[in-house]
Amino acid sequence: EVQLVESGGGLVQPGGSLRLSCAASGFTFSSYWMHWVRQAPGKGLVWVSRINSDGSSTSYADSVKGRFTISRDNAKNTLYLQMNSLRAEDTAVYYCARDLDTDYFDYWGQGTLVTVSS
Amino acid sequence: DIQMTQSPSSVSASVGDRVTITCRASQGISSWLAWYQQKPGKAPKLLIYAASSLQSGVPSRFSGSGSGTDFTLTISSLQPEDFATYYCQQANSFPPTFGQGTKLEIK
What we know:
Chain A is mainly beta.
């Protein structure tokens, strides 16, 4: 059974940093591109970042470029999102998601809430 | 970025009804469209990809159609577990973008 389990969310002050993790199991993690998608409270879904299967290629939404870094450790079956210079507008539930094929998302984690507030 | 616009934003229906949700892209996306279902406090679930391909395990009462700029998600006979919010998403151009969602409520 495919499982994605996020962790690392919490309350952080504006300008602070946080690292999210997504532990994968039930599939060959190293064969799949992976994504982060976020959802602000009461709002819709917004794509954040993606990484290819070996970690050599990454992409970001303009809103997080230069502040967020996606990475992965295929030996540990874990996806990461390093978030720096956090802003109030980054407050959201962050989901990791597996890429089915060219930016379709077939499995999602349960999400981890990041709250940026003083 | 490609803008995705769903209509209606909310709809009320009864168990057994046929419901159609529409998604329009701001430019042509061929058939690069997915539909997701999200229930409160839960992660989204992929229902349809490539506009009309049913994801494994999804009931056949869900169907998708369309190409270019106009797409529809149809639920042929609503079941109690179908009341949720539905999102479309384009995968034709970077970055992937979602519609604003359609909330399907019980009448």
